[in-house]
Each structure stands twice: as C-alpha cells, then as structure tokens.
Design brief:
With 173 residues, the chain is mainly α. It has helices at 2-32, 35-54, 62-80, 91-97, 102-120, 124-134, 140-147, 151-172. The longest helix has 31 residues, at 2-32.
Length: 173
C-alpha cells in the first residue's frame, strides 16, 4: 500500500515538474537575472514541492503553490543579498524567446526595453502583480497566493497598475 501511495505522489510530482519547471525557471531568472541562481531556485522549489506532496497535503492549485515557493526563495535570497535588483524584468527572457529575424529581434529588444522603462515607474508591488498577470499569465487567484494578498486587493493593484501605465504612456507620447 505504501508503494502505491509513493508511486501516486511520484507521478503527480513528475507531471507538475514537466508542466511547470520551465515557467518556474523563467520566473526565477527574471527575478534574479542569474542563470545559475535561477536553476538553484527552480531545483529547490521542486524539492520543497516534493516534500509538500510527500506529506500528503492537498494541493488546490499546484501552479500557484510552485510560484509561491519560488517567490519565497527569491525573497529569502534578496534578504541575504540586498544588492540584487528586480527591475530588468524582460530582457533576460526576451533573449530566449526572440524570433529568427534580426530585424524582429531588434524590434523585440526595443519593445522590451520600453516596457522595462514603463514598469520601472510603477511601485514594486504593483510592478510584480502586473508582471505576474501579463507576462507569466497567472490568474488573479494565483497571484494572490503568490504575493500573500487577497484576490480583491490584487485586482485593485492590477486596475491601478494598468491605469498608471496608460498615464505614463500618454505622458511619453
């Protein structure tokens, strides 16, 4: 019976790892801007996730839990190294996702730099929430779990963030 239980947990873990490991790595990469550190955080995220699964705890939303674990690891790392900044949110991920056309690559880099400049003008929490929603394509409920706030508060931050971005864009035109 114990082997069946362990096999079930292992299959669940492998499924979640296959489905979300690239997303978690990209999230950590954007947050840390260091490939080795992002790999370490990704590995540690899944180790903590395995411990959670192995304890037999119910998981309502594995994706949100993984992001929450990764986010907490990054925050813990920031507390250890306060000189790390989060601001260049897109450049590292853009390099991996650019198209083959040199002209398109240049346009993508320019667009990414413009978005980075706009996002820098948002308060930290708002920038994180907007990025989780529109870059990582997470739901409001998942973001709420990750940032430790309720869904209504996250919705307010999103609304205000979008409005602020629109104002910033208009002022730059």
């Amino acid at each position: 019976m114990r082997n069946d239980h362990l096999q079930s947990h292992t299959e669940s873990f492998v499924e979640y790892h296959n489905r979300y490991s690239d997303d978690i790595f990209r999230f950590c990469m954007v947050k840390t801007r260091d490939r080795d550190q992002a790999l370490d955080h990704t590995q540690e995220t899944f180790m903590k996730f395995w411990e959670y699964i192995n304890k037999g705890k119910d998981i309502d939303n594995p994706r949100a839990l993984l992001y929450r674990i990764a986010n907490n690891l990054v925050i813990d790392n920031y507390r250890k190294k306060k000189d790390v900044l989060v601001e260049d949110y897109f450049v590292s991920s853009l390099e991996e996702e650019l198209t083959d056309s040199p002209q398109q690559r240049m346009e993508d880099v320019i667009d990414g730099k413009q978005v980075i400049a706009l996002l820098r003008e948002l308060p930290d929490v708002t920038r994180e929430i907007v990025t989780l929603k529109f870059i990582d394509d997470l739901s409001v409920a998942e973001i709420a779990t990750i940032v430790g706030r309720d869904s209504k508060t996250v919705s307010v931050y999103l609304h205000r963030g979008i409005k602020k971005l629109q104002e910033i864009m208009q002022s730059h035109e």
